[in-house]
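Our consortium's second objective concerns turning raw sequence data into structural hypotheses that experimental partners can test. To show how far this objective has progressed, the report includes one record in full. It was chosen at random from the queue rather than selected for favorable results. The single chain below, 231 residues long, was entered without modification.
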Amino acid sequence: MAEGPGAPPLFSCPAPPPETGWERLRELWRRDERQQYPEETINIIKSSFVAGLAGWVYGGLPAFYQGRKAFIDRSHGELFLNRADAVQAAHRAGLRSFIRYGWRWSWRVATFVTLFNLVSTGLSVYRNKTTISNFASAGAFTGALFRIHLGLQGLAGGFVFGAAFGIPAGAFLIVMQKFAGETLDERRNRERRELYEQKLAEWQSRLSVTEVLGQTGSNVEEPETKRARAL
């Protein structure tokens, strides 16, 4: 049964799981049949969002209290309508400090975590295994990139700090995955293999049905052809 030029490849053999590192990296940013991104990509987005919130709270809360205290210290002698008006003015000053300094910490922490996860995940996917060296390399690269504007000394300091951050972070993540009974790489490979086997079984089933229909059509056409020739 031939397919038309514009027909979808219903009977084409399913592609095997990616074997090279570049193929696995391209698959990292590609949606599947359900229009969903891989779990690794979703984890990068989630961790970036959580890191942004954590950075905002970390930088914003101290700034809120300091801004509120500074407003109270410099507002002695100012006239307010009542006590509630003074309290609201102090809270507004603290809120401005919370937004200003919280944002400064938020985007820095979110950017650091995003770059760290991008590099570590990319190395793990490319090498098809998760090791502490992946996290150490990701931390060293991210730390050096953040301190590159400080010159060679800052670059070296950021490199060392990032590697020192990446090693315990990677060890913690690997231990957590081991406790879960299956690492992310093992689950990813298993799901790819199961999906490929499922698609292959469906393709073989459709192919066998097509062959049966083709044989049935040929058996029906032969007597008709003979009768047409006899006439």
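The partners drew two points from this record. Confidence is low (pLDDT under 50) at residues 1-10. The first helix runs from residue 21 to 28. Both points have been shared with the crystallography group to help prioritize constructs.
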